[in-house]
């Protein structure tokens, strides 16, 4: 549920970590790069309901497996809540300066796109030119001096998954930005988002009632987008203690994909068959969904990492969601029941 909508409760009631904080008025206008994203939408709604000045970027292009009106529907909802909604396309560099005009804080969720090596450095350069003061970015798990087990797992993922390597390189650039600009940063690194399998397999879930994986029965470190969004709201509204810091946000513990299939079956009242494939068979299955080769490679590489069992170790989990928000991580079952947080226009299966 979006924070301010819980009857009779303030933002600090919903996110206990905000209870002892004074909001940082210097946050100024906040630009959310993707209002249609699973995290960006939640963050934008919460910031608006907290009375913040928010500009939200919306990409209205073709989304595989989604209704063509999805982007406009989200834009309409956010505009009704008071957001300044603009068209924003990562592939169009001219959009960057327009989006960042008058902005002091950026909340960035990078989409899974080809050509990222050019996109993020260019966006960061424009942020420097526009005198952005604070940049909050969502990433994948990253090696830090804390939580040795997580750092080891993060290094393995970065070495083997192009998508994770992409985020790692972007994070490196962002950390270096403070030496050549006024930009400070907070990087919120997450394990596997609970929304990812639903988004990646939405059509298969709806039409074939199947959930296809290649994790070989290993538990997976799934984290709720709701928890990540809560943490983002905290660091956006109270920036000072979180400046130039990296956090690793993980779930409550390993969850097997077979358990997720059962949870989906119970939640939607429809039997969802769990189909466990080998790595190469999984890659072929993903390819059949119409994804491009680079997307297939990333998806299959992620499954290979899951199958290694890295996520099953207790050392692969942190308490940083609790430290930031004051709440314990949401379970997968809790995430499925928390429908009021979800973006309008999407249902699963």
Q: Overall 3D geometry?
A: globular
Low-confidence stretches: 1-9, 19-24
The Rg value, from CA coordinates, equals 19 Å
The number of E-state strands comes to 13
Percent range of helical residues: 40-55%
Q: What share of residues are in beta strands? A: 5-15%
Mean pLDDT: 88
SSE succession? HEHEHEHEHEHHEEHHEEEHEEHEHHHH
Strand order of the largest sheet: 3-2-1-4-5-6-11
Largest sheet features: 7 strands, parallel
- Give the number of helices: 15
Question: From the helix content, strand content and strand pairing, which structural class follows?
Answer: alpha/beta
Distance between the first and last residues' Cα: 20 Å
Primary descriptors:
single chain; 349 residues; alpha/beta; seven-stranded parallel sheet; two-stranded parallel sheet; 15 helices; 13 strands
Write the layout of secondary structure elements.
Layout: H1 11-14, E1 30-32, H2 38-49, E2 54-58, H3 70-80, E3 84-87, H4 94-100, E4 105-108, H5 116-129, E5 134-140, H6 148-160, H7 162-177, E6 184-190, E7 192-193, H8 195-200, H9 202-208, E8 210-213, E9 219-220, E10 222-223, H10 225-237, E11 245-249, E12 255-256, H11 257-268, E13 273-276, H12 279-288, H13 293-307, H14 320-325, H15 332-337
Parallel strand pairs: 1-2, 1-4, 2-3, 4-5, 5-6, 6-11, 7-10, 8-13
Antiparallel strand pairs: 9-12
């Amino acid at each position: 549920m979006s924070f301010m909508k819980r009857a009779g409760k303030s933002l600090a009631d919903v996110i206990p970590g905000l209870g002892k904080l004074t909001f940082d008025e210097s946050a100024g206008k906040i630009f959310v790069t993707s209002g249609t994203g699973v995290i960006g939408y939640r963050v934008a709604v919460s910031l608006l309901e907290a009375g913040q000045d928010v500009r939200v970027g919306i990409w209205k292009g073709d989304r595989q497996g989604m209704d063509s009106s999805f982007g406009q529907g989200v834009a309409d909802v956010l505009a009704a809540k008071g957001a300044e909604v603009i068209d924003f396309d990562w592939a169009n560099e001219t959009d960057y300066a327009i989006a960042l005009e008058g902005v002091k804080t950026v909340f960035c969720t990078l989409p899974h796109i080809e050509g990222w090596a050019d996109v993020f450095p260019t966006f960061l350069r424009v942020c420097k030119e526009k005198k952005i003061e604070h940049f909050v970015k969502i990433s994948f798990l990253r090696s830090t001096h804390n939580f040795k087990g997580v750092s080891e797992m993060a290094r393995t993922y970065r070495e083997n998954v192009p998508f994770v390597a992409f985020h790692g390189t972007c994070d490196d650039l962002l950390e270096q930005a403070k030496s050549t600009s006024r930009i400070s940063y907070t990087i919120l690194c997450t394990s596997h988002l609970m929304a990812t399998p639903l988004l990646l397999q939405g059509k298969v879930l709806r039409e074939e009632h199947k959930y296809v994986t290649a994790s070989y029965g290993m538990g997976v470190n799934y984290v709720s987008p709701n928890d990540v969004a809560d943490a983002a709201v905290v660091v956006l509204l109270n920036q000072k203690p979180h400046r130039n810091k990296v956090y690793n946000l993980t779930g409550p513990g390993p969850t097997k994909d077979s358990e997720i299939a059962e949870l989906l079956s119970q939640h939607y009242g429809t039997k969802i068959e769990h189909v466990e494939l080998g790595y190469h068979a999984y890659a072929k299955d993903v390819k059949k969904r119409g994804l491009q080769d680079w997307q297939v490679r990333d998806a299959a590489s992620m499954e290979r990492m899951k199958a290694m069992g890295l996520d099953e170790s207790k050392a692969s989990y942190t308490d940083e969601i609790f430290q930031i928000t004051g709440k314990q991580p949401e379970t997968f079952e809790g995430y499925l029941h928390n429908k009021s947080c979800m973006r309008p226009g999407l249902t699963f299966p």
